Queue: 3 jobs
Job 1
Amino acid sequence: MAKRILYLITSLMYVWTVCAQPDCFLTHYSSEDGLSQNTVMGILQDSRGNMWFSTWDGLNRFDGYTFKTYKARLGNQIALTNNRIDRMYEDRYGFLWLLTYDNRVYRFDPRTEIFEQVPSGNAGGSAATITSIKLLPGGVVWLLTEKEGAIRVVTSPDTYRLTTEWYAAETGLFPAVRVHEVYEDLSGHEWMLTDNGLGMLVSGRKTPVSFFTETAEKETKDGQPFYTCLEQGDEILFG
């Protein structure tokens, strides 16, 4: 009798294990299926349902059936300085923002299939080493650099044209070398958390309000660094 009960318990455990297996189907896509490179750095589904893959050798769009590759080749008009794309984001207007291996940023329009370097070659900050892209809820895009402050990018909702402002000690707009983080609060104010205090941009203004910053007139230029923040009700906590 004990053997039968043990057999019954063992059988039930086996049935439960089999039933607990996930009901899924795996499909493997590689360069043999049209993917431009097998090292994928980012995956994104855009607002139109297309899948995008950023790789070590180009950007790929997948419609569920085939891949289309975008990368700089001899003779084509794609203005990428490096085909390795490490970061990829979609903004509220349907543009893709790409950070390449050589620390350059491009805005890609899936409708026209045109790449645009941001900032443009004749704009301030175009030679800066960009390390990250931050998309804020209101539509503003910030480009954070290694040691050249940050670049604020605004998209016109009518024409999609870009305007940029470079916030750094070099330009005089804000006395910081490194911007660690940016944050848009519930009132629409944009905060810069830097190696030299806080900067708050009020909507419609170019010059930020400064908090805890050290100026050139003081004995030391080493200000208070801020790295993180959290908004709770009518308060914002800064760390």
Job 2
Amino acid sequence: MLDACYEENLLRILLLTLVLAIALLNLTGIHPALAAETFNGGKIFNDNCSACHIGGANILIEHKTLQKAALSKYLENYDIEPIQAIIYQIQNGKGAMPAFKNRLSYQEILEVAAYVFQKAETSW
């Protein structure tokens, strides 16, 4: 009887811990899979993107910023797959933005995309 009660309490504690961990991750605004990439992504962004996009702005086309609303408006499928939409934009460029697929590795592009996504979610 004691073992069954102990197991039931342990299961409750584990479930509560899981629920609290999920809630905490949702409150931080950073997807757990992206947390590691954002640090390197910030450095890569500063080295390659900040000349035109300092602080999430756009010095060439003022309304096409890296703010969430602008990304949603101007990047195809952003509302469905935001990271993939950002990756596509970085890889292929558009208009005045150059393509970076031959300048950055896929891992670097992924890290920049994670950084941009995280910053857009927190309003830069």
Job 3
Amino acid sequence: MKQKLNAWFNARNGREKMMVLMMVFALLWVAFFYGIWLPLQSAIDDGKAAIERANSTQTWMQQQVVENDLRVQRARVANPQQAINNSLKQSNIPHTPLAVQGQKATVTLEPVSFAAFYQWYVMLNRTAGVQIDSVQLTPLGKDDSALKIDVTLFWGKAA
């Protein structure tokens, strides 16, 4: 086969040989362009688009954290239960003993004002990383400043 092709090529005159070589070169270039270059460029573009989507998702998530005041759910202390008890004692807030289940603790505060509860929680969150899971406020009588507060707190693993 190679000999026949070589004989056929040698039978052509100089001008025809040049045209055949140019056609072979053009076919090789088209095969390279459509078989290698375009798929490779498409893969690169897809990769860049995926990176851009990931960056925009990360930017959006960071904006949501700032806008919605979402914090990392990690305890900043080794023993969050002790931190909760200590903060309640420091704040002089009357409370029931903590009911702890895993990484959650439930406590009832009564009677307490909402301002005192809020100050206590902000201090606890900043110092220990403990967050509110749920809270139930119940007014005690006609005095709106006295509340019974059932609060469930949670924390993640210590950082």
